[in-house]
Automatic annotation (TrEMBL):
It catalyses: L-glutamine + H2O = L-glutamate + NH4(+). Substrate binds at S64, N114, E160, N167, Y191, Y243, V261. Coiled coil: none annotated. InterPro entries: Beta-lactam/transpept-like (IPR012338), Glutaminase (IPR015868). Keywords: Acetylation, Hydrolase. Belongs to the glutaminase family. This is Glutaminase. The keyword Ligase does not apply. It comes from Rhizobium mayense. Homotetramer. Gene3D superfamilies: DD-peptidase/beta-lactamase superfamily. Its EC number is 3.5.1.2. It is an enzyme of class 3 (hydrolase).
Amino acid sequence: MTDLQAILDSIHAELLPRLGEGKVADYIPELAKVDPKQFGMAIATVDGNVRSVGDADIPFSIQSISKVFMLTLALGKVGEALWKRVGREPSGTAFNSIVQLEREEGIPRNPFVNAGAIAVSDVVLSGHAPREAIGELLRFVRYVADDESITIDDKVARSETQTGFRNIALANFMRAYNNLNHPVEHVLGVYFHQCALSMSCEQLARAGLYLAARGTNPITGHSVVSPKRARRINALMLTCGHYDGSGDFAYHVGLPGKSGVGGGILAVAPGIGSIAVWSPGLNKVGNSQLGAVALEMLAARTGWSVFGD
Ligand code: GLN
């Protein structure tokens, strides 16, 4: 048996001298205030064990990792019809790119770039007031994580509402192409609040378990999605979860993963477990710099890459 706690401890010890590498997201003022030297990592395995190291119990802003949970909800609502509104190809562009959206007539490349996630939020919003859609997401995340204490950080949501000019542009653009059905302010209200979900690595690792265990949370027994849907969400995370850094992440880590500009990454080892890592400093394409390094170490030491050990 691999001693996962020993592996986590060794990764933490080796990265200690490097903490603070990268640059925290400063285009969202609230995120600019985060101490860049924090580091946490947690692994929830399908046998129900959770192991962790460092600041794994400190909640942080999960940002774009929330796009995985919103995608799960949207697929539950409209199924495959979602793909009329959003593509399934890697973008090769920045997460907040505008150029591609014009060239491709308002259909975002995939559900993980900002434009795609905004379209997904529009789908989850249908039939709801914005407040209800946010409530639905919060209930869902609490359910998959089996943790009622998870909250949304209103300060972060407000901070992004005041400064999210690119997202406002993306949303207006899609509305002009009839790819948003609700008022831009309502859709972005949902989107900014989902990004402001605040979770620790331990909570996030538990929340991702359904993706590692054929759609069912093995701890609670809750069936979340079908095995086929879990497999497909993992495929999208592998190909698109790190934006224009997705190829590099697959090359180095070899696991489906989704990053957020809060410095978190959720990675899935199918059949084995779900891993969350947090280190706020980002690399040039906006993914956690040391988070990816930590996951590369983990994959190398466990042989968990989906491409073989
Ligand atoms: N809320 C952030 C934004 O919309 C999310 C981006 C990210 O985490 N990559 O810009």
